[in-house]
Amino acid sequence: MQTLDLVAPTTQELVAAGLQLPIMEAFYTIQGEGRFTGHPAYFIRLGGCDVGCVWCDVKESWEAAKWPVLSVEQIVEDALVFPGRLVVITGGEPLMYNLDPLTKLLKEKGFTTNIETSGAHPFSGDFDWVCFSPKKFKKPHPSIYPKADELKVVIYNNRDFEFAEEHAKLVNPGCELRLQPEWSKASRFISEIIAYVKNHPTWKISLQTHKFMDIP
Ligand code: SF4
Q1: Does the CB atom of residue 49 touch ligand 1 within 6 A?
Q2: Ligand 1 atom nearest residue 133's Cα
Q3: 11-213 sits in which CATH class?
Q4: Looking at residue 5, what is its pLDDT?
Q5: Where do the domains of the chain lie?
Q6: Which residue has its alpha carbon closest to ligand 1 atom 8?
Q7: Per-residue pLDDT for 3 more than 90?
């Protein structure tokens, strides 16, 4: 009689399927920026990023292999410990992974799902709010533009206003447009951002209020 030789999938295969994901950190805090500013939220920060922003404040996230790999069931179970039902998936660059299984389970458990992404990889997942923050260091994948609910452009130098307008032309008409000073340059650029938004009122200002509150 022939026996079936069942081989368990490797971690690499499970990660490729989005059933397990590298978690740099996960924590319950207050969303400090963008549309959901002030909302309590559970942040899931996935390890791994290949975008390479020079001013990145989470460079330790870049190397995915440094972080423990957890099943989506475990990730959701950990989120359920806290009373809030808003989840923000961030990174690193979360769209390096297939986010369909994680967001499906989060929604089954009653979570509102948000993502913060540079859009540098093909879109996946079921999200209630997509915050798209394009970076000059790696071109966004075209699949992000129709999905973006919010376009958040970090202003690090004067050329970033033009970069912001280029992307504003590509998102849906209802997409909310925000300019956010890069934290280390905030004092230098804030007056220019204020003047820009007053003259271009389709834009709003986003501040990293969690940094003022000294919370993660
Ligand atoms: S996309 Fe985000 S995590 Fe990646 S380098 Fe840029 S700021 Fe850092």
Answers
A1: yes
A2: 1
A3: alpha beta
A4: 66
A5: 11-213
A6: 56
A7: no
Rg (CA), the chain: 18
Question: Which pairs from 193-196 meet CB under 8 Å and 24+ separation?
Answer: 193/155, 196/161
pLDDT digits (tens, 9 = 90+) for 48-90: 999 999 989 899 999 999 999 999 999 999 999 999 999 999 9
Pairwise CA distance, residues 195 & 85, whole Å:
37
Q: What is the dihedral of CA 17, 18, 23, 28, to 10 degrees?
A: -170
Q: How far apart are CA 97 and CA 68, in angstroms?
A: 15
Of the candidates 96, 100, 83, the one whose C-alpha atom is nearest the C-alpha of residue 24 is 96
Looking at the chain, how many residues does it have?
A: 216
SS3 label, residue 98: coil
Maximal C-alpha separation, the chain: 79
Q: From the CA of 5, how far away is ligand 1's center (Å)?
A: 42
